[in-house]
Amino acid sequence: MDKALIILNPWAGRGHAGERRHDLDLALERAGIEYDMVMTHTRGGATEMAWQAVERGYAAIIAVGGDGTINEAVNGIKGAEASCGRRVPLGIVPLGTGCDFIKVLDGLEPYDIYGSVLRIARGATRTIDLGHVRVDDEQERWFINALGTGFDAQAAAEALKITRFKGFAVYLLAIIRALASYKAHPMTVEYDSKRVHRRLLFVSIANGRYQAGGFLLTPDAQIDDGFLDTCLVDNLRLDEIIRHLPKVLEGTHTKLRQVTMGRARHITITSAAPIPVATDGEVLSTSAHTVTAELVPAALEILA
Fold first, then answer.
1. How far apart are CA 286 and CA 238, in angstroms?
2. Is the per-residue pLDDT at 43 higher than 90?
3. Is the dihedral of CA 294, 214, 247, 186 positive or negative?
4. Which helix (H) or strand (E) element contains residue 191?
5. Could you report the per-residue pLDDT of 143-187, keeping only the tens digit for each?
6. Between the CA of residue 150 and those of 117, 145, 174, what are the distances in Å?
7. Helix, strand, or coil here: 16?
């Protein structure tokens, strides 16, 4: 391939990505990839870098980090595509805390720098869908893996505060903290021809299957089927949450009477009370009232 821009988030994986900078350089050189590398240190930095890279003519954008870094790169790529018309593929080297999105890509493993780089060097691409969300008509964003509203978004917010742990432990502790602070509110969810109105613990809208470090919230989701999968969970008592949590790791929670699964291209969530919203693990709002998500088919090329 022609020259790629590598966007490295050195703080991804609680600093693990930065610690492996030498391994990354070595793998890229051995694979014969011509590249420039930049590092992002602020929220939104990868979006700006990816946007500028598309405008400057780079042949590919390689995101090195976790789901948040990937999300920012996607938003930069799509923003530049809209403004200048260039469609540039995204490559991924997964070195984040959760690495949830890449779990649906056969043969790509978290923290496997050499394997990831070899896939990128082959230059094969795959077209996938993306989700697009609008929050209170004030902000909009693309998401590649999942959108959460309610309790799961509160857990994402708690996870960002945790710095002393890594991997799945981060999300488990975040869930415990969220249980202590989150109160379920009545929500109205409209998707395709369906309408649900009741007190919900959370609503998850997903392109991928995994969230929060390995929870199989939407086990039947496909990233190229033209649909977003939905998981609506009724308000549960604390003991019920604790009892059912292991089922979410296995994807068997879908059989519970308190869980409603669905599939749609357009979903609207409204709540009189303010609710948190997160995309790909990054918090968009802590006080949203209206959330609108839609599926955009064949919206992105990834190097896979």
1. 22
2. no
3. negative
4. strand 185-191
5. 999 999 998 888 877 777 776 766 677 777 878 888 777 888 999
6. 36, 17, 14
7. helix
Q: What is the DSSP string of 69-89?
A: HHHHHHHHHHHHHHHH-----
The CATH number of the structural domain formed by 132-296 is 2.60.200.40
Q: What are phi and psi of 221, to 5 degrees?
A: -70, 145
Rounded distance, CA 156 to CA 13, Å?
A: 15
Please give the backbone phi and psi of residue 144, each rounded to the nearest 5 degrees, phi first: -100, -25
CATH class of the domain defined by 4-123 = alpha beta
Is the distance from CB of 240 to CB of 259 less than 8 angstroms?
no
Residue ranges covered by each domain of the chain: 4-123, 132-296
Paired tokens of 186 = 């009545």
- Cβ pair 290, 268 in contact under 8 A: yes
Under a CB-based contact definition with an 8 Å cutoff, are residues 119 and 92 in contact? no
